[in-house]
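Wait, mind explaining this?

_____
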Amino acid sequence: MEKIQKKVEHYIEAYHMLDGVENVVAGVSGGADSMCMLNLLLQLRERYGYHLTVVHIHHGLRGQSADEDMKYVEKFCGEKKIEFFGFHYKVEELAKVWHMSDEEAGRKIRYEAFEKILGQNGGGKIAVAHNSGDSSETFLFQLFRGSGIKGLTGIAPVRENIIRPILCLDREEILEYLCENGIDYRTDETNRENHYSRNKIRNELLPYISQNINEKAAWHIRQTAEALGEIETYLEKQTDQAWQDIAEYKEGECWLDREKLNEQDIVIRKRICRRAVAQMAGKLKDITSVHIDIVLDIIRGESGRKADLPYGLEVYREYGKIGIAKRKKQEKDGQICIDCNMEGEDGKEIRCDRGAFFIKKIKNMPANRKIQEKMYTKWLDYDILKSTFQIRTRRPGDYIVVNQEGGRKKLKDYFIDLKIPREERDRILLVAEGSEVFWVVGYRISERVRITEKTGSMLQIEYIPAVAGI
């Protein structure tokens, strides 16, 4: 026990987690990790002199079991004379309202509750009970999602006012500590279920790797994450310096100096472009390497070129500058642009003067399911398509992927090959994101979103044209 406590004390000291802190709000679910953290914070309270408060969140997902969790934590706090606050939410309902997953909604309400109580107490630190295994899981989860360096840095010991005092402990050490201190804990039965990707990594993948490849694999993953964190810190400093010289905001637009940008190494160049898009969009979600490549194409191209980006943005080149801004309203009669976001939704109906689109998300597609080709019903790979796209008419710079190797064809050239009259081209609807076209409605889909044996979830889109005179 003393060895584990000393290990945590040294870890807290190394990252100055509690230096000069007057209030600590601990997020406690009642599980092994959070009960271990709570007891350690109790033991350190006299040494550091902080006021300790516990916040417990009932997510409204697990019925009586969750009720018992809250009662247990509240009783424990009462016996130890710890200030306790319990919150009850209906996460599934909130997730639908906020258009996000249950996991994302749960995290949002937890940290909002933590911040609320911390604010009432006059500020301080929020303590959450991630352990070293969580860092390994996060690394693998982000790696499989295709994350960049920043996403592979694992879980930080300290981030702003959030501290993770037991991030240095593995699961075995936590259970050993609880056993030696005679502390009971609750078990969330859903942690054993493998419906979520994180649970599959925790319950199946990491144990298999440790048992069959390298028993210290989790430790090596954490070391790699820490090294990448150091690299990310260095690259961010270099990006900050370059940004000051290259970027400027003017009348709602972000402008990049093309010549100075091209002087930078490609790594910094991409980070500058990513930062510019993210700052104009107000978020990084769904901004991928494909979109950064679009910006780089504009940088390399001739003056006057432009292309669309997610969240209603466009990128364009004007002489020696690259501009990123909200798309200007289309002035041409008959043009259509409807944003569609399927995040947190299973189905949606979209109508315009040309007809109606009926969109349905299909999860966990059966491996043997046969996909039939129909003119006005298409099935697209949702894992590649992502959650945000547009239904619109054509724009300059549009392209479609025409083969398995990723070869692109300009939409203009595709229309010419099909001998589609110029006046008809402006009326053809597209499913697109940025300048990439996923479906030329009534014609073909992009090879990049075609259903394959690797497809996990798909999007069914049915189009019913409007009938003239109705």
Q: What stands out?
A: The mean pLDDT is 87. The CA atoms of residues 355 and 466 lie 4 Å apart.
